[in-house]
Structure formats: structure tokens, C-alpha cells
Amino acid sequence: MLHFTPPCPFGSPDAAGAPQNHSMGPFLLKRLLTLVATLAGASVVVFVVLEILPGNAAQMLMGPDASPEAVAALATKLGLDQPALQRYGHWVGGLLTGQLGDSYAYGTPVRDLVLERLSLTVPLALLAMAITTVLALLAGVYAASRHNRWGDVGVMGLAQIGIAIPNFWFAILLILLFSVKLQWFSAGGFPGWTEESGGSPLEALKALLLPAISLAVVQAAILARITRSSVLEVLREDFVRTARAKGLSRRAALWGHVLRNAMIPVVTVMGLQFANLLAGTIVVENVFYLPGLGRLIFQSIANRDLIVVRNCVMLLAAMVIVVNFVVDILYAAIDPRVKASDL
Amino acid sequence: MTPSAPPSPATATATAATGAPTATAPSGLARALRHRSFAIGAVLSLLLVLAALVSFVWTPGSPYDMDMEAKLLPPSAAHWLGTDAFGRDVASLLLVGARNSILVGVIAVGIGLTIGTALGLLAAARRGWVEELIMRMADFTFAFPAILSAIMLTAVFGAGVVNSIIAIGIFNIPTFARVTRASANAVWSREFILAARACGKGPWRITTEHVLPNIAAVLIVQATIQFALAILAEAALSYLGLGTQPPQPSWGRMLSEAQTLMFQAPLLAVWPGVAIALAVLGLNLLGDGLRDLLDPRLARQR
Amino acid sequence: MESHSAPAMPLLEVSDLHVRLHTHRGPADAVRGVGFTLERGETLGLIGESGCGKSLTAMALMGLLPDRATTRGSIRFDGAEMLGQSEAALCRIRGRRIGMVFQEPMTALNPVHTIGRQVAEPLRRHLGLSAAAARTQAVALLDRVGIPRAAQRFDAFPHQFSGGQRQRITIAMALACGPELLIADEPTTALDVTVQQQILGLIGELVAERGMALILISHDLGVIAQNVDRMLVMYGGTVVERGPTAEVFSAMAHPYTRGLFAARPRLNVAAPLAAGADAPGGRMRLPTIAGTVPELVDLPPGCPFAGRCGFTVPDCYPVLPPAVPLGEDHSARCIRLDAVAAAAQEGRA
Hints:
The complex is a heterotrimer of chains A (343), B (302) and C (349). Chain A has 343 residues and is mainly alpha-helical. Chain A is 73% helix and 0% strand. In chain A, α5 (110-145) packs antiparallel against α6 and α5 packs antiparallel against α10 (250-287). Chain B has 302 residues and is mainly alpha-helical. In chain B, 45% of the residues are buried. Chain C is α/β, with parallel strands linked by helices and 349 residues long. In chain C, the strands form 2 sheets. An 8-stranded mixed beta sheet of chain C has the order 6-7-8-3-9-10-12-11, sandwiched between helices. Chains in contact: A-B, A-C, B-C.
């Protein structure tokens, strides 16, 4: 588990007690700049690893048996004879305008391929995140309210087991139970969202359910533990005692005062966990034979189609970075102390 | 008149450690064994290590010899957990697979621990732009989870256990860097460091003599947790075929082979997963237990 | 406040209050047989060191003891027994008829809610005021406790205020619904000395203005001296001496009380560095009470001060000394009062 340190929260009151500037403007700007810088950095890393390091990409694509002439022709076609910086600029320009080039293996534009796959991966990730959030918050708050009693021990025990289970194994177990034994769900595959692709929204959701659950269980276990300890920590704060002294019942104090404070570290961890969630989709898509982004990456590696791999990896990294950015903003929205000090 | 609060449990333990008589405070080992998480975690982790060690001298069957006559057998006296699609003894495969998991865990965590801790210590000692740079780089690498980095590396350099170890290890570096820096910063701001600097000790000596011993507990705990994560990551990579290659047994790859045979031999998909789960569970509990025992102030809510 | 036609019932009657904590070393009686009465509009001080049970007594009054504490005895507020009441009934009393101010103003307020919302919360909850009405009243309260530009500051957050101001805000919160009793648990301990005087003055004004009863808890004799009519001295969970403040200050009887008073550093006593009665070296040493406060688990059944007290005899240990009356409403729990008085005469105690 990552050790999490939240950004320094405390601003200082000024002597006259005048309210400081709470506008989001400068804060947002700074965060946006960080976002752009991180995206740029990520693109450099991806480019270096997947374009520079492999050496001659054309050689890789065609394999060791291809003739030098064919390799040279492909190299020219791919623009590999241009200097690295130029290729990088070309690629980033393409990323921004949506011109991602063509897949060598499939022959189709990468952009179409990616969009098609995203229509599965994004809903899958969102569904998993939704299930995770609901499960984790309920479990965490419940465990905190039953602190040191059997409810707490039981839930936390389950959470420990949940963390230890590999998500792809849990997926296989789910398939064993629900597909092999009970035959309620299919063991894999994805029918598509529309009639013309052979499915319907309901069918599609049904196909995504087991994958989302297997992703959600591990994430929920981690998040439940953090929720519980965060709630317990906030429960011990003085202002909770003040709230009770004002006549709030335990439950009223929990919902009115504790949860918003307790959610602060939880939300941040959720953002960090999103990267792991996306990584999980790569594996889980393979378990269920779902034609999503993860499986595309995987197949492209097998096909040595580095162009596709490069763009997909960049896309995944960008998703993670953007989500972390959103989480940062959310954090500031929830905790009024952050904006004042973070300028 | 000096008001004094009743001693906290931490001081009760400290008193016990210094040998002063206390009525009921138990000794260190006794306390450790009474701690539920630590006890269970230690037992499971020990089992993992034992399985790996035992596999060097003895296995119930053979994990390498294929016997197509005996494929997909259910558990029996001859084969305690049955056989796989190639007639290999599953129990033996699990034992040897433990070797693999430990190897990956130790080296990957080793990489992260040495390089990450060094970076973290450097960041805490130098502060300023060095710290900023190191921390930005660490934050940045979190955009690439282990699986993703491993996939990138194996896409370029090819699949195999070495590349997956390197990938997992590289991902461990920022984690250790962050943890080290945070703890080291806390130590640097303490009074006795100021005293050491006043004596003329340079930052290198202060780091090795004062900071490192004080953050050792945190690092140990983090290492056990990262070890567990490394096992999970290696299992996922092997499942995808990017990790340990045949014929070397690997729990993850056993699962992927079992998946194709789910209808014929469902149990095959269960045993390797149980092994992974128990290993990871044991290490996590061990880490949690160590955290409570080594620094009760961090324990807080149990 | 309304008055009864019959002889006025005390606002608060505590008798034989015991609070037992369940620690990891075993059960500890943190409050042992504490009893006192409080009339409407009366001010009472509780003084003692950390760990003597004064805060726990206050929390018991509010019904806010931790779950692992067991209470027995009787707490009658306005005639009705509070121990054993349902949580819902207690919630109706807290904040509405009894207000409480705590020691740490820096952490007493929820950092993610505006102060205005927190002051208005009891008004909306107990009195059912609308948001607008509650806001108006809250602004008036904030103004009364001395927050400048209260109407604008209503929407500010706690971290934008200093410690003294935050304490004023908590006082406003405690008084919002016009309670009959205010409990102030070390309200000034965490504040600068100059601010302390302001806060105590504010509390005094408000108490007088609204005819509230006040229980003021402190470990500081100076705070107690100026602000309450009667006082209780607590040690080891027991009230060891009680009486009108002026009388206790002038005619203190219990050895612990005497020790407390003697241990105050006095800067303007004549010739502090001249030869004193005590020290051969020629300087006056600050008298201290020997020993340390024992853990509650280890206290003997008898007098809690036995052992540390210079006048201990074997009879002190088995049984809690009875309260010996010393004057108008003044009493002390000690079986050695004569010896103490005699030593005082000779200038030794």
C-alpha cells in the first residue's frame, strides 16, 4: 500500500482575520500547467522507450527474415529516416490532431481502432469504479462504526483477503461459478453496444458485469481499509466532540461532520488507485476475451505493431494523469484549507 | 507540581524493553506472537519460504516431466493436487513456483529499496531543487503502473523473467523514494540532527549514522508490502505470457493454462490462485503486524 | 429563567457519581463518589491537576463519556435523572439546555464548514429555525462574542481565525440556544495570557447577562479565584475540599489544597532572594508536592492523596475520609486536619 501524504493543508490566519482570496483561478492555472507538463513528460518517455530504444522499428515490424529493401521501404514509409526530434514532433502533432497513423497489423487507422476499443474499456473502468466506490464506502463506514467489534474484524478480514487475491484469478473463479456452474453469464466475449454489432446496451452491460466485479473487489478492499482508518481518525478529532456536545446524535455527527473530512484522503487515494484500475483492465480484458484497449495493446505486442502500442500506452498514461488532475481539483473543492496555502 | 498523564501503551512497552519491572507488560516476542496479524502473517510467509527451500531438495512428483498418460488427473494419493494438461504434478509445480515468486520479489524489491531509498535520502538531505526534481520524477512514474511499464519493456526487449523483474523493480523505485523522503524529512527536522550538524557532521555521515537507522522500521514494513505487490505483478505478467517462460513453473502461467481447461478440470484453476493469495496475504499481514510492533505510534487504530 | 413557586429546585444535583474506565491494565475508578449541587445562576469552579477526574465529571454530566466507561450514581438536571436516559433524550439536552466549551479552540471547529454554519447548526437543530433566521441570530451571537464584521465573517472558515477568536466562536456556539448551564472545560488553557483574560471576561459577562449557571474547570488557581463563587478541589477522582472561593483561598484546610497554593510562584513577595525560613542557602525554594500523580488503577481505596501527603498515617489508606465541616458550606476530606492546622500555625505547612 502506498504511504499517502496529502498536500500541506494549513493556511495561516492573518492577524486582522480578513478572509483570504479563495478563488480557484490561480490554483486551477497552476494545476493545469502541471498537467500539461506531466503529459509532455509522459509522451517523451513513451516515445523514447517505444520508438528510440527498439532501434529500427521497421526491422522489428517485418521480422528478421525480411529483405533489406523491404525494410528500407517501410522505414521510409513510416518516416523513420527523419531525425528523432522531428519524429517526436510529428507524433505529438498527430496525437493532438487525432492523426495517429495506420496500424501495420490491421491496416486500419489507429484512431478508429482505438476509439472502438475505448468504447469498451472506458465503460468497464467506470463501472468498476462505481462498484468499488459503493462497496468501499459502505464497508469502510460500517467497519468504523463497529470499531473493534465483530463487524469491524469481519469486514477488515475480508478486505485483507480481497487485497491478496489477484484480480485475474478472482475473474476466473467468477467464471467458474457463474458461467461454468450456474451458466448465468457467458465465459467471455463482448456483444457490442448496438444492434448492428450484434448486441444491445443491456447485453453489453451484462458482459461487462463480471469483469467489473473482479476489478472492483481488489480496489474496494484497499479503499475500504483506507476509508475505515480515515473515518476512525476523524472520529477522534475534537470537532466531533464539539458536534456531539451541541446535541448531534452519533449518526448525525457521522454524516454531517465526519464523512466530508474523512473523504479527503480517500478521494485522493481513489485517484492514485485509478492507475491500478486501468492496469487491471489490461489483464481482465484478456481473461474475458473483451476487445478493449488492454487486449489491443497485448495483441499488438504479439504482432510487433509498435505504432499501436505506442499510441495506446500514451492514451492509458494520459487517462491516468488526467484523472489525477481531476482528483487534485476535487481535493481542493472539498478541503477549503488547500487553496489558500497552495499558491 | 508536575501534572503527568498516565503512561501510554508505548511507554509501557519501552519500560519493559529497558528491563524495568512492570506488572503486566509482556516481552517483545510474546507481544509479537500475540499480535494476530503478525502471527498469521509470519506463519504464512514462513510457509512460502519453506516451500521454496524444500523444492530444492524434494518435491512430491516432478514438475518438469511430462506424462501424457496421466494428464488432468484429479487429486489422489500419488498426486496430491492432481496433474495438469501435460501430466505434471500440480503440487510440485506449486512448490517450485514458490521459488520463482520469491526470486522475483527479492530482486525487484531489492532494486526498488536500494535505488529508491538512496534517492529519497538524497532528496531529504539536499532539499531544494534536488528534492523537487526527484519527487516530480517519482510522481510522474506513478502514471505508469507496473503492468504498463512491464508491457512496454517486454514489447521492446522481449518477454521473460528478467525483464519482468526489471520492470517491477523500476516501478518500486518511486514508492521507496517517496516513503524514504517523507520519513527522512521527519527525522531531519528533529533536535538531535541539529546537534549533530552543530558538531560539524556532514550530511552524508548524518544520513548514514542517524537518519537511516531511524527510518529502518518504515522501510522494512514497506519492503514486505512491496514484496507482496511484486508477487502479484509477476503473477499477472506470467498470466499474460510476458513473465516467466516455460519450462520454469510459475503460478501465474499455471492459471492461464488452467483457464483454457476450465470445463474439464476446474480445480486446476483454483490451486495456483490459492497459493498466490496465501503468499500475498501472509506478506501483507506480516507487514501490518511489523508496522504495529515496530512503531506503536503508527499503529493507532487496529 | 423561570422560577418555581416551590423552593427553587437546584439546577444540577450530582450525588455519589462514580465513573469507571476500563483500561488495558484493568478497571480504574476515575471519579469516586463526587457530589455537589448547583443552583440556577450560580458559578462553580473545579480545580485539580491533569488526571484528577474533573474533565470526566464534566463529560459525565453531558453523557459524553467514552463507550468503555461505566457510570453509576445520580445526576439530576432540573429534577430529571440523566444517567440512564436514552441517547435521543440526551441529544435534546446537549447544546439546548447545557452548553459546553472545550480546551482546544484550534481543533474544536470543523475545518470544512464555515463558522457561521457551525454556529447556526444548534439553532436549526434544536429550535427549528429556518436558514435565514438562524443566520441572523448566529450573526448576532458572533457579534456579541466579539467577532468583528460578523455578517461578513459568517462565511469564513475556521483556519482563517486566531485561537482566541475560535474560542469566542465556540462560546457563541455553546450559547446559541440559550442554555441554563454552561460548562467550560479549561477554556483558556491553550490561549495566550492576554487573551485568557478577555475570554474569561467574556464568559463572565455572558453568564451574568443570561442568568446561566457556570461550571468552570481549570488547573489554574488564578482563573478560579476571579471567576467563580464556589469551588471544588479535586484529586484522584475525589473532591477533597469544597467551599466558597474566598473562604477556601483564605482558610484552606486540606493538605493537597495547601500544597497547590504553596506551589504557585510568587514574584512580588517581599525579598524573595533573602534568607527564607526553608533554605539554608539564603534563597526561597518553590515548594512542590513530592511524588507524582499515581495512575488511577493504582490508587488505594482510601484517601487518594495518602502517600504523597506529608501528614499520612496508616488510617488514611483503608477508607475514604469523611467530609469534615469547617465553616459555612466549607468542608474537607481529611482525618488529619488538626495536624495540618497545627503545622500551619508553626509556619511549616
